[in-house]
Amino acid sequence: MNGYLNESNFMMVEEGFTTRDLLENVLVELCQASNQQAFFVADLGDIVKKHLCFLKALPRVKPYFPVKCNSSEGVIRLLAELGAGFACTNKVEIARVQNIGVPADKIFYSSPCKQVAHIKYAASHGVQLMTFDNEVELSKVARSHPRARMLLGIAADSSPSAHPSMAFGTTLESCRHLLETAKEQAVEVVGISFHLGSRGLEPQAFARAVAAAQLAFDVGTELGYQMRLLDIGGGFPGTEDTRAPFEEMAAMINSALDLYFPDGCGVEIVARPGRYYVTSAFTFAASITAMEEVPTEQPGSDEEDSGSKKSLVYHLSDGIHGTFSCLLFDSPCPSPQLHKRPCPDHPSHSSSLRGPPGHVEDHIADGLELPELQVGDWLIFKDMGAYTIASSAPLGGCPQPQITYAMSRVAWKAVQLFLGKPPAAEDDRETLCAPLSCGWETAEAPCITPALAPASII
Ligand SMILES: Cc1ncc(COP(=O)(O)O)c(C=O)c1O
């Protein structure tokens, strides 16, 4: 084991139950303490599964998890334990992973726009791998970090589905000029990077981007650089209901890599999968703290009748400056489940969810059809692991929700097998478990040599 994660970092749970069961347990405790604070439950076993699937589907690609996507301690510890690297966008994120013990060579300072103070921080903490896509960034790094190893960021996809706000990356036409400027400033360029955005990516976009990256590699090599690293960014789906499933994207990436960067060509491939790893592992619960009724006019209805149909606005203790900041990162509008089962004969109303009262423009969701709820009722949001947990204190004064981490014994055994450590003996394990589970689907990890474990248990 690598020592980043141990059994005290999470609750060991039994098979047969789900994250929802765990959530119910937390809710009982909170209700007993009259506590209405929003909270998460996180199934670390789900992240283990994702990691093993990633390695199986993209065997040549090393994942660097973007810390801005979820900087919670359990996630960072687990991914460090599994050997993943980390992509950081500022010094707070670098410090976060280094405080857990992650070595500098597993950290990629991936932000295209960096503050000079943060570049200096990276330099003094041994973080060398960085990106640039314009001359201003280049000269900042040339002045502040002489040992940086740079990746040139290219805007590789010009298709209509490309994210309109993705300003990251230079054009292929500008590559030569930027690489020549880097040469003049004695900056070491080691490869090419792209990030295609995260909104409903087509698998073909990756193939086009890998092809474009190869052209940029050629320019670098021509200018005398040793080009040995390709970063294919993030954008892999975090749930299964997306237009292109992860496996389809992976198949397309593998064939593009085989064509443009064949095995043995000396180029290492990395990616920055964020939402892929964490979305489905986290479930969020928030209670209603206030509500307002907005009468709606019914077209054609008479005066007396017009009050019977209403719209309801519910305020939660958390909003888009806190957990729901995921809405700013292209995550779909969350549909809550009700904690209490509604009476089937109660009418539903057009309902909206808002952040804490007084926070103007804190719109979480509109147009939901919900039965009438009360202050103190709980709403449950699934798939809330990505872009919901910040590395610094959230804006707007929302307190950070508590996170309860759990992992099933089978998933923990899989981690141990993956890392080449034989799992604990049967008797020792019995004492570690609470009678719950987060639903690891495999019955038992097979008894096989550690080297084969990842591919075999998924
Ligand atoms: C530059 C960059 N890389 C990687 C990611 C990760 O994207 P995702 O979470 O969709 O994998 C993001 C997300 O915003 C990003 O901006």
TrEMBL record:
<keyword id="KW-0620">Polyamine biosynthesis</keyword>
<dbReference type="GO" id="GO:0033387">
    <property type="term" value="P:putrescine biosynthetic process from arginine, via ornithine"/>
</dbReference>
<keyword id="KW-0663">Pyridoxal phosphate</keyword>
<dbReference type="InterPro" id="IPR022644">
    <property type="entry name" value="De-COase2_N"/>
</dbReference>
<dbReference type="InterPro" id="IPR000183">
    <property type="entry name" value="Orn/DAP/Arg_de-COase"/>
</dbReference>
<dbReference type="InterPro" id="IPR029066">
    <property type="entry name" value="PLP-binding_barrel"/>
</dbReference>
<dbReference type="InterPro" id="IPR009006">
    <property type="entry name" value="Ala_racemase/Decarboxylase_C"/>
</dbReference>
<dbReference type="GO" id="GO:0016831">
    <property type="term" value="F:carboxy-lyase activity"/>
</dbReference>
<protein>
    <submittedName>
        <fullName>Antizyme inhibitor 2</fullName>
    </submittedName>
</protein>
<dbReference type="InterPro" id="IPR022653">
    <property type="entry name" value="De-COase2_pyr-phos_BS"/>
</dbReference>
<dbReference type="InterPro" id="IPR002433">
    <property type="entry name" value="Orn_de-COase"/>
</dbReference>
<dbReference type="Pfam" id="PF02784">
    <property type="entry name" value="Orn_Arg_deC_N"/>
</dbReference>
<feature type="region of interest" description="Disordered">
    <location>
        <begin position="338"/>
        <end position="362"/>
    </location>
</feature>
<dbReference type="GO" id="GO:0005737">
    <property type="term" value="C:cytoplasm"/>
</dbReference>
<feature type="domain" description="Orn/DAP/Arg decarboxylase 2 N-terminal">
    <location>
        <begin position="44"/>
        <end position="278"/>
    </location>
</feature>
